[in-house]
User: What shape does this take?
Amino acid sequence: MINKPTSVWIDTDPGNDDMMAILLLAQNSLVNILGVSTVFGNTSLPKVTRNAKFILDLAKRNDIPLFAGAEQPLIRDQICADIHGESGLDGVTLVEEDLMVADKAQEAIIKALEDAEEPITILALGPLTNIAKLFTTRPDLISRVQRLVIMGGAITVPGNKNRVAEFNVFCDPEAAESVFNTIIPKTLIPLDPCTSVVLTDRDIASLPNRTVGTTLKRILKPYIENICIFEGVQGALMYDPIAAYYLLNPAAFTTVPMDVRVETSSKGLTYGMTVAERRIIAERVFNMDVVTEVDAKQFISAFLAAIKEMDKCDE
Ligand code: RIB
Ligand code: CA
Assistant: This one.
């Protein structure tokens, strides 16, 4: 587990699993969340931004500044998700989204990087549009980033948006390819270690019937139903919270250095596919560490403990 304060910026498209990732980190006193930026993805930018505000309210963390980012991909047409519902957090009543001014995120992340005393960890939980724009416009800030931790891609398993592409990368393949080519310490949490890690009905039933526990039970019900329909899995898939947990306990993960690229030239079947060089070849060039395994028991136990701790304040 981390043993010293770590400054983090979260870029996100809430999204049920984004919500659980933010709750996990917001609860940890060693994680200094400098800001949250939103990006289109699981639903529209106004809705994901409204949802991010809902989540920070739920976590009683309105001290964390929130900024709206990119409304659409760099080049491709926008696509939508299936498993998070129309609002992105189906299951609870949400206020109407007030259209926050888009792309304020860029100046906010830039200021956070410029002002930080120590390099920052960036956690990217949605399409990589904001991150690609950041490093394209301000490559000088790369040195202010401790590590870029990305949830996205699929290396040895099928995609979850189509037969080859993972959702975050497929939403903006050009942005992902740009970020993957950026020379910066990166860790990728692809679908591979996530597909077998679910929060079961039994796990969810163990949560306290207090504010956070009750809200999670309400929100996760339609999420689990959609996952069963669209992904054929029984339980809540935990893509983003697993990526967040990497910041808390990297020792629970197995990583392999790889060179991973994104297919952007084909607009056909392989568009948005993440392609890893895994041959044992002479010239090994790596552009990231790729997570191949996670200790699922440790992760689920840590997540449930964080939610129970958060609800203790509700007593
Ligand atoms: O493919 C899973 C990713 O796409 C997660 O970040 C989920 O929230 C969606 O954005
Ligand atoms: Ca997400």
Summary: Residues 12-13, 15, 17-18, 42, 125-126, 240 surround calcium ion (ligand 2) (CB under 6 Å). Residues 186 and 288 are 5 Å apart (CA to CA).
